Amino acid sequence: QVHLVESGGGLAQPGGSLRLSCAASGIIFSSYYMGWYRQTAGKPRELVAGVGSDGSTNYLGSVKGRFTISRDNAKNTVDLQMNSLQPEDTAVYYCSAQRLMVTFGQGTQVTVSS
């Protein structure tokens, strides 16, 4: 049973940084595609960044060059470093683990505001 726990959300000023972390258990972590999604009220959840078991990465266009996803297969963790944050990055961010299906964590709120 996949269990994902996010941490690191909070309030940041525009131009600031936050780092999200996700600890996974109950899976063979190295074989999963790991990602970070975000969702705001009334909008569908969208994939912000993903990292494959081979380390290949994929980013939403609006966060390229600002966000960096990384995974540590020894620690079963996946992080999202978010720099140059903008108010439109405000959302609930969800860690995800995917093989045949996608499983999400409980989410962590990120608010970007002055």
Q: What gross morphology would you assign?
A: globular
Enumerate the spans where pLDDT stays under 50 for 5 or more consecutive residues: none
Overall residue-averaged pLDDT value: 96
- Beta-sheet strand percentage? over 45%
Task: Please tally the helical runs, counting DSSP H or I stretches of 4 or more residues.
Answer: 0
**Sheet/helix structural class:** mainly beta
Give me the oligomer status: single chain
Succession of helices and strands: EEEEEEEEEEE
The tally of strands reads 11
> Major sheet: size, sense and barrel closure?
7 strands, mixed
Distance N to C terminus: 40 Å
Helical fraction: under 10%
Summarize the structure in short:
With 114 residues, the chain is mainly beta.
Describe the structure.
With 114 residues, the protein is mostly beta strands. The protein is built from no helices and eleven strands. It has strands spanning 3-7, 10-12, 18-25, 33-39, 46-51, 57-59, 67-72, 77-82, 91-98, 102-104, 108-112. Strands 2, 4, 5, 6, 9, 10 and 11 form a seven-stranded mixed beta sheet that branches. The model has no long low-confidence stretch (mean pLDDT 96).
Give the secondary structure arrangement, pairings included.
Layout lengths: L2 E5 L2 E3 L5 E8 L7 E7 L6 E6 L5 E3 L7 E6 L4 E6 L8 E8 L3 E3 L3 E5 L2
Parallel strand pairs: 2-11
Antiparallel strand pairs: 1-3, 3-8, 4-5, 4-9, 5-6, 7-8, 9-10, 9-11
List the keywords.
single chain; 114 residues; mainly beta; seven-stranded mixed β-sheet; four-stranded antiparallel β-sheet; 0% helix
